[in-house]
Write a structure and sequence with these properties.
The chain is an alpha+beta fold. It has helices spanning 11-24, 36-42, 77-83, 99-114, 154-161, 183-195, 206-210, 214-226, 237-246, 277-283, 291-300, 323-338, 353-356; strands at residues 4-7, 54-63, 66-76, 87-95, 120-123, 135-138, 165-176, 199-201, 256-260, 266-274, 306-314, 342-345, 348-349, 364-376.
Length: 379
């Protein structure tokens, strides 16, 4: 039977769209499911602030009445304007190992984009950089993180068979937490602190996140720091408000470090958290009935020996000056005290030397690589 592509039109369809990933990977030891409740909000035009500048359609692939694939088609108008392109993104793509299925899904995104004047297709990308992006091309035998995509090895093979080419690669590093702060690292941190009159600030309470717009200022810094990165589109005030409300309050504040100048302006931020990968697997991507317990335990009481480096952001005028050393001089003793042995970086652009140079004094290994593909739309 041929493949049939259907648009997601009902709440039931959307549930099917989200759950397809869970079913496809339910027996895979490396895949980490998304939190179902988060996905409902992400795909909702009413709840996701990204729809202020994005439009999207979701597609399901069927064969013999059975779901065999899914994909989201997204146009981020703000990113297109920023980067001077007319691109439709494909995201949240999953499919069985059947080229007819994968090509039908990509074909649906191409057609949808072409009807709206788009000239190229790229992905996997989400609505914004705050969504998971990049197709795994190396590291299929490594546990995924809650912030990244896991996919089977046949996915990139299908993309390349369609004629897609590399647009951007990200790498992920596994870093050993040292027993002591490297001596050279300490010297750099001390020099930077004195030369630029910087100091460490720790957030002492969840209430402080909302006081004097601190949470908002953290995300404004991220906007500045990430602006030059591939495909980035600035977060709006509504997006920032949503991230501050949803994510900052659940962090262990010991694992959040700010660097400020002598006028108390934020020049850098480092945010990390215990790995939630195993807990999310046990929760099967759902808070209820007992998923919340696995997540809470991993956050508060019994975490693994691995942490996730969610983000490190340095204001552009302080990049390349060693400010990262100041961040990790504060954070490494915290990691050791909490019993962490390894830190996993979020995806880093392979060409971003400033980011990768910060690990030069640590024992690290590149253990995953992911790719954004692109292809001209055939009119």
């Amino acid at each position: 039977m041929s493949v049939e592509i259907r648009k997601v039109a009902t709440k039931r369809d959307l549930k099917t769209f989200i759950r397809f990933n869970y079913e496809l990977y339910k027996d895979n030891p490396y895949s980490v499911p998304d939190l179902y409740e988060d996905m409902l909000s992400t795909f909702s035009k009413e709840k996701n602030p990204a729809f202020e500048f994005c439009e999207a359609e979701y597609f399901l692939a069927y064969r013999d009445g059975k779901v065999v694939g899914r994909v989201a088609a997204i146009i981020n108008r703000r990113a297109n304007e920023t980067w001077g392109k007319q691109a439709v993104r494909f995201g949240w793509i999953d499919f069985i190992d059947d080229f007819e299925v994968s090509s039908a899904l990509i074909g649906a995104v191409e057609q949808w984009g072409s009807e709206r004047g788009m000239e190229e297709i790229e992905g996997p990308l989400g609505f914004t950089d705050m969504d998971p992006e990049g197709m795994l091309i190396e590291g299929f035998d490594k546990l995924s993180t809650i912030a990244t995509i896991y996919n089977f090895p046949y996915y990139p093979q299908h993309m390349e068979r369609m004629g897609m080419e590399k647009e951007n690669d990200w790498i992920e590093q596994l870093i050993s937490v040292p027993d002591a702060i490297p001596e050279k690292h300490l010297r750099i941190a001390d020099m930077v602190k004195n030369r630029y009159k910087l100091h460490i600030r720790k957030i002492r309470s969840k209430r402080e996140v909302f006081r004097n717009g601190l949470g908002h200022r953290i995300f404004e810094l991220i906007n500045e720091a990430y602006a030059p990165l591939f495909g980035y589109s600035r977060m709006t005030n509504r997006q920032i408000d949503e991230y501050v409300k949803s994510y900052l309050p659940i962090l262990d504040l010991r694992m959040v470090t700010l660097v400020e100048d002598e006028e108390d302006n934020i020049v850098a931020v480092g945010i990390s958290m215990p790995s939630m990968s195993k807990a999310m697997q046990k929760a099967h991507g759902k808070l209820l009935p007992f998923g919340w317990w696995h997540l809470l335990k991993a956050l508060k009481w019994k975490h693994s020996d691995r942490l996730d480096l969610l983000l490190v952001a340095v204001r552009p005028d302080f990049q390349g000056k060693g400010v990262n050393a100041l961040l990790f001089t504060d954070l490494i003793p915290v990691y050791r005290q909490m019993g962490f042995r390894y830190a996993e970086s979020n995806p880093e652009m392979e060409t971003n030397d400033k980011v990768q140079n910060q690990w030069q004094y640590f024992s690290e290994v590149v253990h995953k690589r992911r790719r954004c593909y692109k292809m001209d739309i055939k009119n």
